[in-house]
Every structure is written in C-alpha cells, then in structure tokens.
Give the backbone structure.
Amino acid sequence: MTDVSPVHTQADKPASPVKPNPIISFEGVTKRFGKTIAVDDVTLQIQEGEFFALLGPSGCGKTTLLRMLAGFETPSEGRILIDGRDIAALPPNKRPVNMVFQSYAVFPHMKVADNVAYGLKMDGAPAAEIKTRVAEALELVKLGGLGERMPDQLSGGQRQRVALARALVKRPRVLLLDEPLSALDAKLRDQMRSELTSLQEKVGITFIMVTHDQDEALAIATRCAVMNRGVLAQVATPADLYEFPNSRFVADFVGSVNMFEGVLEKDEPNQAVVRCTELAAPVYLDHGVTGARGSTVWVALRPEKIEMHKRNGGEALKMEDAPAGANVVAGVIRDIVYLGSETNFEVELEGGRRVKTFRSNLTRYDQEDFTWDEPVWLAWHACSPAVLLS
Amino acid sequence: MEQSWKQAKTAFAAVAAPPVFWLLLFFVVPLAVIWAYTFGENTGPITIDFTGTFANYARALEPLYLGIFAKSLVIAGLTTALCLVVGFPVALAIAFSSPRAKAWLLLLIMLPFWTNLLIRTFALIAVLREQGYVNFTLEWLWNNASGFMTLIGLQPLGEYEPLTLLYNNTAVVIGLVYVHLPFMVLPLYSALDRMDRSLMEASLDLGAGHLRTIWSVVVPLAAPGIASGVLITFIPALGAYLTPDLLGGTDSQMIANVIERQFKRANDWPFGAALSFLLMYLTFIAIALQALVQRRADRRG
Amino acid sequence: MAKQALPAATAAVTERPAPREKPGPLEYMRRWPLQLMVGLTLLFLYLPLITLMAFSFNDSRRNIVWQGFTLKYYEKALANESLIQAFVNSLTIAFLCTIVSVILGALAAVMLWRFRFPGKTALEGTLALPIVVPEICLGVAMLVFFARVMPWPTGLPWPFNLGAITIAHISFAFPFVATVVRARLASFNRELEEAAKDLGASEWRTFWDVLVPHMRPGLIAGALLAFTLSLDDFVITFFTSGPDTITFPVKVYSMLRFSVTPEVNAASTILIVVTVVLTAIGLQLQNQKPKEDKA
C-alpha cells in the first residue's frame, strides 16, 4: 500500500485524449416517449476499436440509446454521427451497424446457415461469396459444421453464437449487443465473457454493449458509460469507474460501498479531513478534494479496502499513514457470510451504523478466526476513500 | 409496440382497405338494411315503406311472441346448464390427464365439432326415434326384466311402451346439448389447463377434500373460462334454428324458427327484422354480462 | 406430477414393470367416476355418428335392424346428380371462401396487431360481430341484401352463380380467421422483425421472410376453420341459395324433409369422412413445426 499512485480524484485524472475522428458520436441526443424522457441530452464519443459498455439500471435509457444507433428509434433532438456522417435519414436496413438482440432473434424457421446468410443475401452478394463468408463466420464463433441445424436444435449459448455470426458476417462498422449475456446461465456467462473479448480483438470491429450487470461491464469493456435516468452519469474505464466514481450513484451502482455523509472540515492541496457523524473518528485523506470548506460531502469506502484487526484490551491501533485518532474506528462483528474465496463481515460501529468489510481467505485455516460479537478495529489508508461532492 | 398509422400510410392502407371494405359492404350494410326494416311497413306484396313505425316491436312484445322469447331463453339456459354439468368434469379430467391422452381426448371432443351440424342432428334422430336405439335398448332391458320376473314367479311387466323422445321439447334440449357440448368443454379445458396446479395442491395440503378444493379454489379461478364457455354455448343455443326445426314438435318453436317463418313463409319482413334485432340485443346483453365477469376476474389479477 | 418425475429417476435402475401406482392427487383422469363420465360423454357424442355410418351399409330400407352389408345406397347417392351437384357446390364454395377469408383475415389481423389508428376499438368490435351475431340474423340480413340492395345476377354460369352464397360465407368466416391469426401474432417476437431490418431487409422483405412464416400455423388453422365453417353452414346458405344453387346441407335438409332415406346416410358418411380427412391433413400441417414456438 506504499506505492499508491499520486492520482486520487477524478479531477486529477488526465482527461482521456479525445481523438479527432470518433467512429460514433452522439451530439445532445434526447429521446422522449410522450412525457417521459428516456434519454436526456447525451453527448458521447466512441472510438474505433473500443469495446464500449452502456451500463445502468433498467429504465435508464441505455437500450433506447442503442436502438437509436441501430435505427429502431429516432432521436427527438440531437444528432447521431457514424464516421462523421449524420445517420438520421438512414433506415435500419441501410445503416452500417448490426445488432445482436437480447432474445438473439434467430429466425426459427431458417437453418443456421440461412440465418447467417440472410444479411448477405439482402446485400445481394453472389452465392459463392455468401457460402464462404457464412462458413468463415460460423467457424469464427465455433459453430463450424452446425450450419444445417435448425435453431430449435441448438442450446441458448449456441443460438447466441448464431446471432453473433449473423451480425459479424456483414462486417459492420459497429456491432451492437443488447444485454448479450443476460439469458445465459452463470457458467456459460463467464465463458462467453472471455470469448466476446477475444472475438472483438480478432475481428477488430467496434463493439457497443448494453448491460445492467456491472460485473459484466467491468469484465469485458474497455470503456463504460454509466447512465442514470436518461443522463450520462460517468464515462470512464472500468478501473476508474470503480476506484474514482464521480457521484454517489456511480459509487453505489458499481460494486459494493460504505457511504458516509460528512462535512468537509479541511481542504488543502495535499490533505483533507471530513468529519462524519456516523464515524467516531475523522476521515483523513492524503489529497485535496477541491470542495468548499464546510460543505456536505460523502465518503465512499469500498469494503475490501477496510482492514479489520482484533481489539483485545482496548489499546489504540496505529496506522503508518494515518495520523493518530483518524481512520480507525471501533466496532463489533455482527454478521459473517462465508463465500469461499472471501468472507464478508458486517461490523456495527459505536453509533449503531453497520459497515461492510471483505477479507480474502488467503489460507485454508484462518489464523485470526474472527467470530460473532467480537470487538474489532476497522482501519483504512488515507488514500482509500473516494470523496464525492454529489 | 403498435405503430401509428401515420408513420406508414401506404402499408396501412394496403393492409386495412380490403378487410374494412368487405366488412362494411357485406356485413354492416346488410345489418343496417335489416335494422331499417324494423321500422318499416308492408305496403304491398314486395314493397316495404320505411315509415319509422314502432309497430313491429310492439307486435314482438305481444304475449304470444314474448312467450316464444321466454321459451327460447329457458331452453338455451337449460342447454347451457346441462352442458356445464357434463362439460366441467370432462374438462377437468382432460386437463389433468397425461399429455398423450390429453391430445387424443381433445381431438375426440373436437371432431364432432368439425362434423356437419345437420348430419349430427340427423344422426341423433335415428337414435332417439320410437324405433331408434335408445328405445331398443330400453325395450331389451324391459323384456329381460320381465322374463326375470316370470322366472321368479311374479307377474310379467307387460308390453313395452316406447318412450317418445323425438318431436318435443326434451328432444330439442338433448339435441342442443349434443351439438354444443364441445363449445363448452374447450374453453373450460383451456381455463383449467392454464390454472396454477400448486394452488390446488396448497388447498389439498391445507386439509380440504377434492370436492371442497374444486368448489372453493378451481371454480372461482376458472370463473372467466366458465363464463366464456357459458357464453359461447348460450348464444348459438338461443339462436338455434336447425335443432328445434328438425327435433322439435309443433310447440317447440324457438325465436329463430319464428324469424324464418316471417321471411320465408309469412313474408312479413319488417316484423321478422324486428324479431332478429331483439334476438341480437339479447345476445349483446349476454356478452355484456360475460364481459362483466371477465373484468371482475381481471381486476383480481 | 410426482409420477412423472419418479420413473425417469428409477428407469435406469429397474426394468421390471412398476406395480400399478395409486393415482396422484391431481390425476383426475385416473379416478373411475371421471373416467366413467368421459366415457359416457364420448359415447353420447359418437354413438349417433357411428350408427349413422354403420347403417349406411345396412341392406334395409327401414334402417333399424342389421340385414346385411350393401353398398347400394352409395351407388344410389353417387348416381343422384343433384346430390353430387350440391356436394360439388359445397366444396367449391368452401374452397373459395377459404382462400378469400384467409387473405382478408390475415390482413385484418396484421392491421389490428400492427397499427394504432382512430376508430380502432369500433373496428375491432365490428369485426367481432359476425362471430357473435346469431346465424339466423346474419342469414336474413344476407337474404335482404341480395334481394334488395345488391341482387346477384341470375343465370350466371357455374361457379359464378354461387357468388352470393360465397360472399355470405366469407363475411362470417374471415373474422374467425382474423381472430386466430391475431392470437398467433401476439406471440411474435418483435426483435425478429428488427433483426431482419438490421440485416438489411426492406419492410416488404421483412413481412415475407419473418412475419408470414410466423403466422403460418395461424393461417393454416384459420383456413381449416373457414373451410369447415363454410362446409358446415346451413342457416345462412338456406337464406341465400336459390333453386340452382343448392349446397350439400341444404340438399340433405330437403331430402330429410321429404323422407329419411338410407341414401342420406351414405351421403352423410361421405361428408364425415371428407371432413375427418381434411381435419387430419390440416392438423398434420399445423404440427409440422411445433417446436418453432420455443425459439
């Protein structure tokens, strides 16, 4: 924990370099359905070769955004550009994007090969070319030899591969995936995650995926946009989303978090202090926050970044990079959930607030053997919490 | 999900024009003409004046015709009740049989429905008439019983008197039940088949017997299915023409027979039209009642 | 339910026939009172038809006691020209009615399923009317319509002289087709349509490549329904047929009115067999791709 990077807040992060020619750009796109606003003034650029994820709870507008790109919805306001060209006038069947649907939408009355060939036939490709390209596409998704099957003879995972092959065979500029893994069972989902990533590397096409599953987005995407109620909440790499959320919504939506409301007591370029009513000790930070002193802020602390120590006798715990009396609070273990690779604890602080903390099970016999109702110290490093202004 | 017609006017016009045109010209116009006739008067052998009179309706409300309406309602109601009593256990048995048996039983129930109505009614005549199979069977039983009584030293029962099963109201009800039973069984079956079985299991688990479970769990939950079964049995039974015509006696005329007589024999079209519309209104009332049951069931979730 | 799960688990272990299990709590079909009920009902439904068919082969005019096998009534029926003409008329009308009803019904179903337009509820109600209005009312309406509003020209060559009856049949048959097809459309996955468009298909191509194949079972069921409704109809035909345009049911009716001859038995048996065969073909067509729904 000593080699902490000098970058700590979102404000300090160097803005990701905006390339001059994004493959897709949304410019102030708004979509209204009657009175409800599904997508609210979204401006977003996606670069060539990215695996981009649109992440958010259901009803946040992520699917609408994707469908506008595919042409199944028209924006109420704003423009959508592909390769710098406004695509408003293009119907779905003329757009250089293809979609893998949530239900896969594999045509049930056509053989697998006919499904994959369908798009090429629509383009009027010669029969010989169709044949070789279909075979290639099926090979690519590891369905070689299954071309003569009917969709109802395939498993759910295989049907998804057909949908993938069917879209990729058209060599679209962008591949759209609507909740691609939601219909698969847990084991298959893990497998498809890595396959999707390697597939994208292989074909080099820009992928845009919609998902409500933050694990999925973090695992697959090179960059994510978190949406909330039609608005873009944050656009960042998976690691930045997790470690440097810009709002309580993002911190809470991505991963598990302990959130404390507090008042910013001290804010200097290289240190800050937040006093939270629920914590007996002040929160000390080794970086500035750039918020006005005295304003309300929120301290977001990931459970795995909290250390837990036994509290025998009651002597204070020393942390090397925290000043005395800060970042250490006393509590009692109230709940233990054993998950195999790790154990989740719920610790009740003196004020009654419960805090989550995770411990990896590094050895087969836990030397410390924490148990119910055991008094413990909770401590964290000065660089661990994220301070959120909104 | 639905698209506004304005977004695809050509497609909408192409799809909508033929059926709407047909429906208007060959259904709405004929009904409208009949409706206009209900306010008309016969002024000559084939001329009818639209005078706006209510005389036809007034005549339809005379005791003679009211009696026929009442009789039709009673016969249709009795038919429906009998179909329900027979159809419910049958539907229950089918819904809870093995998938293979289910398919066959459904086919067996539906096959007569595909068979010509006239032929079915005709077939029933052969069974019901005085020298038909029902009477033959009864006579055989009678004679055997008679012989048995002689054997044990009692007086024989005497000559068998064949039952009159044809050309009376009983025959009409039997015929209507025969013809409409599939109409009742199929909606009942689909309602029972859709029902969540765990609800019945819960009732049995909580200590209710089978009859109790059927009465207080199955019947209320299947109420919409029962209502639609009752409706699609009652409506055609109420307007039945062929069955009372072929199986009924002189006093078994139902509304449809009276209407037919006005158009084909009495040549009083306005009065026949008025009777037709009264029959239609009765039908609509029955549909409204069914819709009410349906809505109540929907509200319950 | 438990019964279904058990044999699967034990099948691999024991091959000997399982002792007859007691019926499960919800296996009503395995309880004797209900078995009896179902048996009696089927007897009630089939006894008249089977005796009718059996006695069409009976060598007796009075048609009550079995006198021996004969085909003479079939010969008579087949030699009866007006009966054959009526039979051909019925099949022709049913065929024409089926084609037009399927087209009109499918269009109506697609219209109601696909579009939002003013007056939709009213149109839906009107479309349901031919299904619920008593046949006799429709019959007299058609009688008046073809007598006074749009008289069908008389003396037209066959099959055009059947126009009035055919039109009347289509009017009450196509709403049935629309209902069946619309129910089928309700299970359509809109993403299939979007997928086709996404892959480059036009509106028209999408309709033919994706929607029509999905509607297929509904179209077949609707066609079957329209055909039998038309073939079965007596009342409406009774009011729209003229002396030259007799259909089979109307002919049988008039034969019944005069006397019950075994000829009618023979003719009826032929019609029953035709109906059963057609139904079997229709069901076969419908069941060809039963798994389609799973995808």
In short: Confidence is low (pLDDT under 50) at residues 1-15 of chain A. The first strand of chain A starts at residue 24 and ends at 33. Chains A and B do not touch (no CB pair under 8 Å). Residues 189 and 225 of chain A are 21 Å apart (CA to CA).
